[in-house]
Specification:
This protein is of the alpha+beta class and about 250 residues long. Helix content is about 30%, strand content about 15%. The two termini are about 35 Å apart. The model has no long low-confidence stretch (mean pLDDT about 95).
Length: about 250
């Protein structure tokens, strides 16, 4: 059983482009059909690494994860024309799948995973150490408050550093760090650039492919806020993707 398709004005991903002063959009096209095929593949194999032999499957990539603590995840498919004008498809999952940035057969993240791990390892250890130290001090004591302030400063600095290593491509041949392309001045929400549409568009722009359509659906246990349900299609989010998709779609 497949869920509803929610694509207002037949638009699956969109964003305001500051350079053009307009909203760039892309519709779902044939990608919906390929999403249904992807759902069936996930249903049948019960794993995300179905592009490799079953005897090589990683237990961590079982879809059981999506019906437990993860409470589901977004998946997407893009149809595109390759350099030879052949119509092909690519698929993506949002964020990390049970801690994995990369899975065979899926497009890579916008971020370089190794660069991400190198950048974050030391600071995350310090942040966790402060967290343990906080337990040794009374809440609202001077020591507790100082440690909280130190942890916040480290976290904010780390997020700024992480955002700077997102190298985002568009269809004008431009490559810019994410803080340079964010539309608006409210800051960059955690997870921006990690959704399916940015991954798929970045993949296409990097290889000079021409996207024809993108569709995204939710797979797994309904999320806690009840805004996402199993096998239902949704357009790209406005709070994260909407900040960068205008730039990414520019020149298409």
């Amino acid at each position: 059983m497949h869920g509803r398709e929610i694509f207002p004005d037949n638009t699956s991903c969109s964003g305001f482009c500051a350079k053009c002063g307009t909203v760039h959009t892309l519709g779902p096209g044939k990608a919906v059909q390929h999403c249904h095929e992807l759902m069936e593949k996930l249903d049948d194999t019960c794993r995300a690494d179905f592009d490799i032999a079953e005897n090589e499957a990683n237990p961590d990539l079982s879809t059981a994860y999506l019906f437990g603590k993860a409470r589901g995840q977004m998946f997407g498919v893009m149809t595109y024309l390759d350099a030879d004008g052949q119509e092909k498809t690519a698929k993506a999952f949002s964020g990390q799948f049970n801690g994995y940035w990369e899975i065979p057969g899926w497009v890579p993240p916008v971020i370089n995973p190794q660069e991400f791990y190198t950048l974050t390892a030391d600071t995350e250890r310090k942040i966790k150490s402060i967290g343990r130290e906080l337990d040794e001090h009374a809440p609202k004591s001077a020591s507790h408050m100082n440690l909280c302030a130190e942890r916040k400063k480290l976290s904010q600095g780390l997020m700024r550093a992480i955002h700077s290593i997102y190298k985002v491509h568009n269809f004008r041949g431009e490559i810019r760090a994410m803080p340079e392309i964010i539309y608006g001045s409210k800051g960059i929400p955690t997870g921006t650039g990690d959704c399916c549409a940015p991954k798929l568009l970045n993949f296409a722009a990097c290889h000079k492919y021409t996207p024809l359509g993108i569709a995204e659906f939710f797979y797994g246990l309904e999320n806690r806020s009840a805004t996402r349900s199993h096998k239902t299609f949704y357009p790209s989010c406005t709070d994260k993707c909407g900040l960068i998709l205008g730039y990414m779609l520019c020149g298409l």
